[in-house]
């Protein structure tokens, strides 16, 4: 009788379980908790993507991109195709919506898989893969660089170098990085010294008090170096006159400043005779000159005139090595961008004032200039573009510098 009563009680309980879903869920929950308390431990296996066959860059399209860095260190990447070519002397198009007192300071054209070596004004070097930069539209502001790499907030990016591969030992040993400072110091170091990335960066050059790094170039060891001053003078010498030094060295004299207020505004390295020297002034004037017009001098001299600086042109702000197969991108402090074909600019003498490249409004000034490879023009690209300026503002090439040193 006791066994019968016990069995009937079990039957009643089981029927109630079958009829009550809430009770069934409670039973399952209690039993799972009991199993967890008895057998639970930390997961020992890891679920990861196969690291043998796949790398991060395999998932990223290796497209041509434009990287912009603002004065206040905001960075973004944009497909190069968003910037259409226009005629020389046009007004340009809106490039970036920036905050007040901020403007785009660097425009970099790169491949998404490139390594970027970023150099700060204090002489430190940081690494970044191009595809790691957040993508943004042409008019977006971008993201603070300090949120991507460990750049000190008080330091600004002044120079950059694009490197295709940091693991090719032959490439690393046969290429060099040449850096120059605002006061005219130049330094040469093997690329191999920068091939081991560190999260907190490394010292690239020792900067003297009151000076700062302004430019860095990737060279072959026998490139021609041209340094330009704000006053409109430039010097040309072979990089073989600068011996390779360690990362922490200060460097040697590259050019002598003629006045305390003068400063170096840029440096280029030239490896072939097809490259011409492009200089641009702060009020939108520019011109191209053959590299051979700059005679080779001893490193450390005062240089020769590279553009006729007047109140109309303003002082020199940029120097670039360009060819007919490239386009020029100019961005103003107001955020306006214009892209023009280099071949529209005829080659002229050193001591001329050049032609108008961009029409600046009010007190607007040029903030940055970069060169990009030319793309084949399509009908869509040419529609609605402004016509080139008909009035050529160049002065006579006979206006030579009689006081060259």
How would you concisely characterize the structure shown here?
By secondary structure, the chain is mainly beta.
Structure write-up:
- Helix content is 11%, strand content 32%.
- It has 4 helices and 24 strands.
- By secondary structure, the chain is mainly beta.
- The protein has helices at residues 2-19, 21-39, 169-173, 379-382, and strands at 64-70, 74-79, 93-94, 104-111, 115-120, 124-129, 143-144, 157-163, 176-181, 185-190, 202-203, 213-219, 224-229, 233-238, 252-253, 264-270, 276-281, 285-290, 304-305, 316-322, 326-332, 336-341, 355-356, 366-373.
- Residues 376-405 have low confidence and may be disordered.
- A hairpin with a 3-residue loop joins strand 1 and strand 2 (74-79).
- The protein is elongated, with a radius of gyration of 30 Å.
- The chain has 2 domains: 2-39, no CATH class; 56-382, Neuraminidase (6 Propeller).
- The strands form 6 sheets. A 4-stranded antiparallel β-sheet has the order 4-1-2-7, with no helix packed on it.
Question: How would you state the average pLDDT, rounded?
Answer: 81
Order of strands across the widest beta sheet?
A: 4-1-2-7
CATH architectural category of the largest domain: 6 Propeller
The rough form would be described as elongated
CATH topology of the largest domain: Neuraminidase
Number of helices: 4
Structural class: mainly beta
Order of SSEs: HHEEEEEEEEHEEEEEEEEEEEEEEEEH
Unreliably modeled segments: 376-405
Helix content: 10-25%
